[in-house]
Amino acid sequence: MKSAEEWIRTAEELRRKCCFGEAINAFRTAAACPDATEEIRMKARVSVELIQEINGFVNKDLMNP
């Protein structure tokens, strides 16, 4: 069984590879681990929010030339 720290490292590697869905799952798993510290939970939450913001980005100027 992976520790919360191992899940964070896995999630960060997935994020670098642009595997955003898998990264989100790994971040959420890290936050849910029994050994997760408050720092790990906050890092996971912020990282998930950032990925969701990246995926939801729309450049309206490019859509309406």
Brief summary of the model shown:
The protein has 65 residues and is mostly helical.
Characterize the structure shown.
With 65 residues, the chain is mainly alpha-helical. It is built from four helices and no strands. Helix 1 (4-16) runs antiparallel to helix 2 and helix 2 packs antiparallel against helix 3. It has one domain. It has helices at 4-16, 20-32, 38-55, 60-63.
Helicity, as a percent range: over 70%
Question: N-to-C SSE series?
Answer: HHHH
| Tally of separate domains | 1
- The helix-and-strand class reads mainly alpha
The count of DSSP E runs of length 2 or more, i.e. the number of strands, is 0
pLDDT averaged over residues: 92
What is the overall shape? elongated
List the helices and strands and how they pair.
Elements lengths: L3 H13 L3 H13 L5 H18 L4 H4 L2
Helix pairs in contact: 1-2, 2-3
Q: Which features would summarize this protein structure in a list?
A:
65 residues, mainly alpha, 4 helices
